[in-house]
Amino acid sequence: MGLFLHKSNFLLRTVYPECWWKIEDDAEPTIYLTFDDGPIPDVTEFVLEQLDKFAAQATFFCIGDNVRKHRDVLYKVLEAGHMVGNHTYNHLNGWRTDDVTYLENIQKCQQELGVETDLFRPPYGRIRKSQVAEVMESYSIVMWDVLSGDFDPDLPAESCLRKTIQYTGPGSIVVFHDSLKAWPTMRYVLPRMLAHFAERGYSFRAVPQPIYAGY
């Protein structure tokens, strides 16, 4: 099993206090669903079908090169009323990328998206403090409260579901992946997770962003 934290801890939040980890909303119990690495045919479309069943909104953090290859799928995301965010053009690891290249790659993704967004998620959650300062001039950086682990082929789908439910609560930003790698686990976990929390009175919303100009 891969080494990752299902629940973001105090240390992570302390290192990156500028980033969004959770959204407090006392009005009603709400979960903020996010999907990384798409758009991908069939996989992203499956996600859209499941979200529709529960009147759920989500935010899709898109890889620019996938947008280039599958723009028709991006249009389906937008037509369904969901939000999009920037996830770099080539899924770059900020710790291993110089600042100039990293920022140029973000801009390249933005140009490919063709929609205005002020939301950015660093791939792997790995971004240097110097990059944070630059990125925050144009974007809010969205991390997560709960990492489902659907990308881990060694994590049984039942365990992924159990841990995702265990750690998710009001205001949680939860990460799934609409990727081929995550597909076998995600397609099991997502509908069951949605049903579990819907039965308990939760709503599902996109991460809020003030800038959204359509497509």
What this model shows, in words?
- With 215 residues, the chain is an alpha/beta fold.
- It has 8 helices and 8 strands, in the order αβαβααβαβαββαβαβ.
- It has helices at residues 10-15, 43-53, 64-69, 71-79, 99-113, 129-135, 157-167, 183-198; strands at residues 30-36, 59-62, 83-86, 119-120, 140-141, 146-147, 173-177, 203-205.
- β4 (119-120), α6 (129-135) and β5 (140-141) form a beta-alpha-beta unit.
- Residues 211-215 have low confidence and may be disordered.
Shape: globular
* Count of runs of 4 or more consecutive helical residues: 8
- Briefly note the structural class of the backbone: alpha/beta
Mean pLDDT: 94
H/E series, N to C?
A: HEHEHHEHEHEEHEHE
How far apart the termini lie comes to 40 Å
Q: Sheet bearing the most strands, described?
A: 6 strands, parallel
How many beta-strand runs? 8
Helix content: 25-40%
Return residue spans where pLDDT drops below 50 for at least 5 consecutive residues: 211-215
Radius of gyration: 16 Å
Strand content: 5-15%
GO cellular component, one term: membrane
InterPro entries: Glyco_hydro/deAcase_b/a-brl (IPR011330), NODB_dom (IPR002509), Polysacc_deacetylase_ArnD (IPR050248)
Organism: Spirosoma profusum
Protein name: Polysaccharide deacetylase family protein
Give the topology.
Blueprint: H1 10-15, E1 30-36, H2 43-53, E2 59-62, H3 64-69, H4 71-79, E3 83-86, H5 99-113, E4 119-120, H6 129-135, E5 140-141, E6 146-147, H7 157-167, E7 173-177, H8 183-198, E8 203-205
Helix pairs in contact: 2-8, 7-8
